[in-house]
Every structure is written in structure tokens, then in C-alpha cells.
């Protein structure tokens, strides 16, 4: 028995020494594996959930399905909009399953947690669903490409225009996490810079279903605009509550972030005339219509800007991989920033050194029910906002 | 002798495991195992069902995470601080909760835990929905860099073993005997002259502190502390782990945590991801209906009857 113990303890020591001295394998394996992390069944599922997986798969198929001579692999997972779950999935992907790049990413809280992991592991993230401008400012990294839109573009589009039209007293109903805080902060600055004022704010948890108490606070605030600094079903629920309390009769409601599925879900009578900023509208021209038809056939609904962005970002990434002939993140990112993204989604676009993808944004207006030809016909394009006017200027500290 | 050998073999397996299995996953299992063991100390040995244990897990996590981000403390000090904070919170909650029994005890713990949940949701230092992101792992004792996953795993293993040993000691001490006596027949324990509430209170504090230890360690592993750890779902999950593994057995919670965490891990990525909660619910029902003593409890029975 004594001998047995000795053998065992020697064995254990040996194993420990062996494990500690062994090192992790290198990340570049010449095979491209793309992970899409999105909200598969929650508040934001319609914006960037299964649709973002479909859009990414379309990009892979359109690219030919192969990169660096090997089949491109696609994996996906549900973030459940929880930072801890997203973070552990991302960690598992990049550390244990050789995922090269992570896309999708809706909800800024989730994206913040994921980029903490991917920045450390030097994997590229293609952010297509989140809005916070932190990813190219306070939390910028050489491995982030922020596609589609951000809070600055939303505020510079919708808020500025409304303040200039004389809507000068604002009340905010804000989603209580990174995205809502960022959008509220940026919008307030725009309001102030253009001579308006913010008379009050209230913060509602993500996934709130009953907005009546918030709407009543808005009603009592004396504002002439109620800004909804939230997204997805939250926006729809807040707007419905505002309509039920008759707010829409004498106050303007500004949906600061509205995706097409949400605009479709809104009652046209209450939402008509509402102006909003978007990175993409399916019915803009022949190019957008052609892609959107293909997407609709697969997904069953017209694409949101996050879907179109997921396609565009994936395609740009794959082209860069092809051009440099490696999956090394530094080389690929350098190439992505050298070439200008150009497709049905990215117009007059450039991927800046800080990772911000700057492209033309659209200021649109929700159509009246009478003017709609079919259920997908929801916006009139009011104005095209050039990318350099829409987005925040680059910080010197983030120019990678 | 045989059990000694079994322990050595298990230890060897635990040391060799990261060679084969992803270390972060193993570390997660160990953190939850410690949490479940701490919970089991209360449910299995003192017969107290707390339905708010997540609050201790989360508190440990937040305190450790905040200290790691905002102070230059080394991880072991931050973990001790988190554990002490959980213990103090446990002292307050325990004092209030042990005044009641049965379902009322569970409800008091749940209510207090929900109170703290909303506090953490609104308090600026927790980061609300975003959680505390980017918690550095730091260098243990100022020497061992925990950034490497395998090193981190061994650090967690050491903490787990320490916690596990403490629970083992507690259960097999005179104090543990009295806990069991209280579980079996509280009135008799009182009539024998024991201050029952005092014993329950101390058991509660030990359990809370060890739960906080698990939370603190988990925060370091994932470099993140979030509301998930404080949510009442987590309080439910730990009950599931303990029940599946075997209430009132020493290694039951360890097995239960392994089973539940593995299920979550493998199901969440696959086609069945959307049905995760349904499957977990089904497992719970099957467990309660057909093998109430859990995997380890059932195994022990089988061994007793056949060998």
C-alpha cells in the first residue's frame, strides 16, 4: 500500500509538472471559422438573431464557401442578452474551438463582455448589432470593426433634425444598460449644442413590458418630445403605452433606434410621420432590393440594418483574408482598413483606423397606412446623411 | 485505506483533467461545485432550505471584481474580502431568517435576496445590466500569473479543495453532529439544551461565506461579475445541482454541479439550445419522482445493498 501511494504521488507530481510546462497551441491554423453570437429568442431576436446567422451564411456562400483553400465553417450561439453567457461562449470559441472571428453581437452589454475576451486573444470582432460608441472610443481596440451604425449617428440624424425644427424640450425613456446610457448621453449633448434642453430622464430595465409608469412621468415632465432611447420590443411597447395614454396627441415621440421589424410592428396610426435614422433600408434601390429579396426568401422577413450589416462585414472580412492569404488577425485587419467596403449596404464607405465603419446613413420617415403598398413598404427616405457628418470623429488614441 | 486511495485517484484525475478538457470549463464546474457544497451544508445537514443563496455568490463576485478593478490588491486578498463580505451579509440575513422555519424560512431568504438583487441592479458600482466587465485575474500572492487558463484552474482547484475540506470538517465535527440532530428532530435538540437558532445561524454564516468564496473565484475565472449570479434563477439552479447529485452526501453536490454545468455547456451550443430550460426541468422532475436521493445517494444505496 505504501508503495502504491508513492507511485501515485510521483505520478501526480509528474502530471503537474508536465501540464505547467506545456504551452497553448497557436491560433492561426489556416482554417476560417466564423462564430455568430446573437439573441436567438429574446427582446432583440428580430433585429439580430437567427437572421444574422442567415445573413452571415449568405456571405459565406456568395464568397464561394472556401477561404485559404479550406471550407469556411460557421457556428452560432445564443447570447441570451446576458454578458456572462456571451463572454463564456466567446472564450470557449476562441480558446478551445479555433474560432477566428465573432460576428452578430447585439446589445452593447454583451458586446462589451465579448470584446474583453477577443481583444485579449487578438481575434477580430465584427460588431453589427450593437450601438454604443464606446467600442471605437473609450474601449477601442485594433481588433474591433464596428459596422452598421452607432449612437452618435443616431443622435446626429434624428435628434439634431428635430431640435432644429423647434422641438426643444426633451424627456428620455432610456434602456438601463450600456447602450441606453450611451445613446442618452450623446443625444443630450446634441440637444444642448443645438439650443434645446433635457427636462428629465427615466431608466427602464431591458425587456420591460409595462411602460405606463414611465410614460406618466414623461407626461408630467412638460417636454414636447419624448425620446425612446431603447430598442427592439422595448421601443414598440413604450410607443404603445404612449399611445394608450394619449401622449402621441400632443407630444412628439422620437424613436432613437428603430429597426425595420419594430417599425412594422408599430401601429401605423401612431407611428406615422415618426422620423428615425437607419443604416440601411431594403427598398432604397435595385441593389438593396435584389439582396433583400434573397434574404427574405430564406428568413421570411425583410432584413434589418443589422442583418445587412452582418452580410457586408463578413464579406469584407473574407475578401481581406483572401487578399492577404492568412487568417492572422493583424494582417487581415490591416487589409480590411486598406480597402474600402463597397456593396449594397456600404455606400461611400470606409473602415477607419479606429475600427469605425463610416458609411452613408439614412434619415427616414414612417409612412402613413394609406401610402403603404404592402406590409414591407414602411419608410420614405427623407435624407441621405454622409458618413463623415453622421459619425463621431476619430480619437487620436484609437488610431491603430 | 480504500477511501484514501479513492481520494488520491480522484485528486490525480483532477490534476490531470486540464490536459484533456478545456480548463475554463473545469474551473466553472469547480466553482459551482463549491457553491453547491456550501448550499448542501445548509440543506443536507441542517435541513434548512434557503431560496436566496445566489445573493451570496453574487456579492462575493461583485466585491472581488470591484476590488480587482479599482485597487491594486492581489487576487487572494480580493477573494478573502469577497468571502468576508458574503459571510457578513449571511450573518445579517441568517439572523433574520432562522427566526422562522420551513417555507417561511425559504420565503424570508428569497425576499432578502430579491431586495439585494434590485440594489445591485441600480447601484453604480455593479455596472447594472452590463455587469463588472474586464476584471483582471492578477497575480496570486504577487507571484503566480493567473492569466494562463491552466494556472487559473489549479488555483481554483486549490480553493475548491480548501472549501471542500472545511465543509467535510464541519460535517464531521461535534458541531456537525448537532446540525444533524437539529435536522432530524429540532424539538429534541432544544430539549437537550442546545440553542438551536444559534447553531442554525452559524451554519448559515459558514454556508454564505463559502458561497461567496465560490462567487469570488468564479468572477476571477470569467473576468466578469454579472446580475445572473444574483438572480433567483441561480438560487434555483443550485437547488437543482444539489438534488441531482444527492442531498446530504458529501460529494453529491460536486457530481450534481458537474452534470448541470455540462448539460448547460453542451446543450447551449447545439440544436437543442432553445430547449435547455425544458430539458433541465424534465431532469428535475425525473430526479424528484424516481431517485429522490440523487445520483450519489442512489449509488450509495446500490453499493450498500449489493456489496
Task: Please give a handful of descriptors for the protein shown.
heterodimer; A: 400 residues; alpha/beta; Rossmann fold; 2 domains; five-stranded parallel sheet; four-stranded parallel sheet; 15 helices; 44% helix; 18% strand; disordered N terminus; B: 307 residues; mainly alpha; two-stranded antiparallel sheet; two-stranded antiparallel ribbon; 4 strands; 3% strand
Q: Using the 3D structure, state the CATH architecture of the largest domain in chain A.
A: 3-Layer(aba) Sandwich
Q: What is the helix/strand order of chain B?
A: HHHHHEEEHHHHEHHHH
Strand proportion of chain B: under 5%
Q: Taking strands numbered 1, 2, ... along the chain, how are they ordered across the largest sheet of chain B?
A: 1-4
What is the mean predicted local confidence, pLDDT of chain A? Answer: 89
Please give a structural write-up.
The complex is a heterodimer of chains A (400) and B (307). Chain A has 2 domains: 33-149 and 284-359, 3-Layer(aba) Sandwich (Rossmann fold); 152-278 and 363-389, 3-Layer(aba) Sandwich (Rossmann fold), CATH 3.40.50.2300. Chain A has 400 residues and is an alpha/beta fold. The radius of gyration of chain A is 23 Å and the shape is globular. Chain A has helices at residues 2-21, 50-63, 83-96, 108-121, 151-164, 178-193, 212-220, 233-244, 247-250, 260-265, 268-271, 286-299, 305-324, 329-338, 387-390; strands spanning 33-38, 66-67, 70-71, 73-78, 101-104, 124-127, 144-146, 169-175, 197-204, 225-229, 252-255, 275-278, 350-351, 357-358, 361-366, 379-385. Mean pLDDT of chain A is 89; it is low at 1-5 and 7-26. Chain A is built from 15 helices and 16 strands. The N and C termini of chain A lie far apart (63 Å). In chain A, β2 (66-67) and β3 (70-71) form a beta hairpin. Chain B is mainly α. Chain B has a domain at 21-232. Chain B is 75% helix and 3% strand. Chain B is built from 13 helices and 4 strands. Chain B has helices spanning 2-20, 23-46, 54-70, 75-97, 102-122, 149-171, 174-184, 186-191, 196-222, 232-245, 252-269, 276-290, 294-306; strands at 132-133, 139-140, 144-145, 224-225. Chain B has a two-stranded antiparallel ribbon. In chain B, α3 runs antiparallel to α4 (75-97), α6 runs antiparallel to α9 (196-222) and α10 (232-245) packs parallel to α13. The radius of gyration of chain B is 19 Å and the shape is globular. The model of chain B has no long low-confidence stretch (mean pLDDT 91). The chains are: A alpha/beta (400), B mainly alpha (307). At the A-B interface, α1, β4, α3 and α4 of A face α1, α2, α6 and α11 of B. Chain A: Pfam families: Peripla_BP_6. Chain A: Residues 1-26 form the signal peptide. Chain A: It comes from Marinomonas polaris DSM 16579.
